[in-house]
Amino acid sequence: EADIYQTPRYLVIGTGKKITLECSQTMGHDKMYWYQQDPGMELHLIHYSYGVNSTEKGDLSSESTVSRIRTEHFPLTLESARPSHTSQYLCASSGDRGGSPLHFGNGTRLTVT
Amino acid sequence: AQSVTQLDSQVPVFEEAPVELRCNYSSSVSVYLFWYVQYPNQGLQLLLKYLSGSTLVKSINGFEAEFNKSQTSFHLRKPSVHISDTAEYFCAVSETGTYKYIFGTGTRLKVLA
User: Fold this and answer.
1) Do A41 and B45 lie within an 8 Å CB cutoff?
2) Which of residues 83-102 of B touch A (CB under 8 A)?
3) How many angstroms separate the Cα of A39 from the Cα of each of A8, A14, A86, B107?
4) What is the rounded distance in angstroms from the CA atom of residue B22 to the CA atom of residue B47?
5) Tens digits of per-residue pLDDT, B30-85?
6) Above 70 in pLDDT, residue B105?
7) Nearest alpha-carbon partner for A101 in B93, B19, B58
8) What is the mean pLDDT of residues A88-104?
9) Chain-chain contact of A45 with B100 (C-beta, under 8 angstroms)
10) CA-closest candidate to residue A31, choices B33, B16, B94, B85
């Protein structure tokens, strides 16, 4: 079954650590996205990719970086985690046709202590 | 610039009662409209979408939404809610010709027994 997977689901880590949030999809979608979600707030786009070797920063400034070496894989990296990075991170993908909906993973809830 | 407004942050309603979750958007061009549902500790799932054609769109679990261009609205309705409908609902818009999606802040629907 085509799907989108995020690991880990939950992560508690100390300040200053480097972390990578994994996201993989089996739908063959070229477009992939990372959103940050905080309670009571809209989802904020932090990174997106239109295909292999294509990455762009989103509307919300983020200290994270992403890479897109393979179509199915879109990991997000924080070089030095801080408490302000505590949030839920949602990965999504979409098809190429206009109006294609986003398909979301179950998210990674990150807590930086 | 695009924006999405969900005025109601929380909507409590008794089981089997009707409910309407409001969504207004602003955009100077044609848009695609979406409603997503998020259950606790999960990602967002597509509930229904409007791309073109009939302004009334329906989901398989009894929800419906009507696109009103003059009022720039896309309100979500269900004539009789169930306990299992308790979740957070997000309205989203994507301008035609782009692949960016703008989300509202969400409405938490709580169905009471």
Assistant:
1) no
2) 90, 92, 94, 96-97, 99-102
3) 20, 22, 12, 11
4) 15
5) 889 999 999 988 889 999 999 988 899 999 889 999 999 999 999 999 999 999 99
6) yes
7) B93
8) 92
9) yes
10) B94
